[in-house]
Amino acid sequence: MSVSELVHAVGRFEGGPTEMVRASVRAAERAFAELDACDAVIDKASESGRSIADRLRAHLATESAADIPAELDELAAIAARVRGTDETRRLLNRVLGKEDRDAFTPAGVAHLTAADLPRLPSAYAEPDDYKDLLAVAGREEQLRPQLKLVHTDRIARTASHLVTVVERVAAAGFIDRRFATESLSEARRAYGLWERCLAERRRDLG
Q1: Which of 9, 59, 102, 133 gives 64 a disulfide partner, CB atoms 3.0 to 4.6 angstroms apart?
Q2: 193 in helix, strand or coil?
Q3: How many whole angstroms separate alpha carbon 113 and alpha carbon 170?
Q4: Alpha-carbon Rg of the chain, whole angstroms?
Q5: What's the half-sphere exposure (Cβ side, CA atoms, 13 Å) at 84?
Q6: Distance CA 144, CA 120 (A)
């Protein structure tokens, strides 16, 4: 690094080259210390995100729907803490010549909709007369075991998707703003879809 580059790095400085070098070293040490602090926030966010994914898996398995919103809110708070380091990391990485340090392009967020789930069998799918209520009731009873299996599959798929979305954003450390934002939105949509699947099972199976 040239003297002019050092001056640019440490600002206006009254003193000789030796003092300037010492000042630049101290500035670099402070910069690295602040970057380490940012990294600690990101590492903690990743660890906390994985813990939330584990708790979500348990809540979903026991169908503890009331416990899930708080976990998603905590996930959003974690992402916000990482966002709070964005400007510091950007400036320090530029000063230290590490602009590409946080540069990565995560894969897109996978989405799951009701249309992606197995279709529910219906007693009304037969081409005969729907007005024959006894026939419809008979078909409903015949379909009940299959209906139970499909409901179980739909619930399991939405639960697995929700946990996977959270695991992926936690693994990425919430660093990429777009990926984190889309992941949190998808997690909430997946939770809503999971609740809908539970409601449909109650409707069909009691």
Answers
A1: 59
A2: helix
A3: 22
A4: 27
A5: 13
A6: 11
Q: Which helix (H) or strand (E) holds 81?
A: helix 68-83
What is the 3-class SS of 107-171, one letter each residue? Answer: CCCCCCCHHHCCCCCCHHHCCCCCCCHHHHHHHHHHHHHHHHHHHHHHHHHHHHHHHHHHHHHHH
Tell me the C-alpha distance between 169 and 25, whole Å.
36
Contact 183, 168 (CB under 8 A): yes
Task: Give me the amino acid identity at 25.
Answer: V
Give the pLDDT confidence score for residue 189 in this predicted structure.
Answer: 98
List the chain domain ranges: 35-205
- The mean pLDDT values, 10 residues at a time, for the chain of 206 residues are 44 55 60 76 94 98 98 97 83 65 72 96 56 56 87 98 97 92 97 97 90
Spatial neighbors of 157 by CB under 8 A, at least 6 apart, are 112, 117, 118
Q: What would the two tokens of residue 37 be?
A: 């602090």
